[in-house]
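Margin note from the TA: students keep mixing up input and output lines. Inputs are the sequences; the output is the structure of the whole complex. Example:
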Amino acid sequence: MAMKIVKGFETFPIRNKELFLRYAIPCGKVLVKRGELRQEMLDKLDRSVKEGREIDFPIESVFKVASRMCTIIAREEGKSEIDDDVIRRYFLFEHEKAIKWRSMFYPDVKLRDCLVYPARVMDARDMIRLSTPIGQKLVANTFENDLRRRDWVSLHYDHISEKLDETTARKMMKRRV
Amino acid sequence: MCIALPGEVISIKDNMAKVDILGIKRSVVLEHLKGVRKGDHVLVFRDFAIERLTKRKADQLAKDIKDV
């Protein structure tokens, strides 16, 4: 996989585009609102992930902030590509630090929804009912099939991104924003 | 992606820049973004400059950011 250098920034390749998109797609509506991504393209990416299709779209150029920050994290870890650990470190843990940093500039603008939350499945029969640190949520959007009661998952906006192991979920529960 | 903020580079020393972000001056790492000059507008994520912006784009982002 080749690195991409765009206007002075060398972005590392993303090994697992599907995992990256599971976390990035829920943010996509912000890009649509800003005119940086078309809704049809966001819907297409969403379907591709849910149906397990190959992703041939240059996601690094659309989800620029996330892919560039993942590159910086990968570099810090001595890697030359964005692997699964880097994706999870960025979305599950670095977001929190960034939101704290951002609140110095915009203390009145709350970005709680931007955080990825750990959640526990309480009921998965029809809509999925989750217990999260910010209260119970009823969710219909999921990138993860075959959910069962007591499973741990990650929740980004109104999407379930993936199943989590209990250790990671409990580590996320300790975050404070 | 809604977390990064636009700012203007007011000085550069080695791989660090002083960036004015909404009137607050912060030290920002330039290591990952090549070719940044004084007066450029950049997108900052925590302490890292990650993208050069046109002034128009920076102004637009600063305006949009409150609507997120």
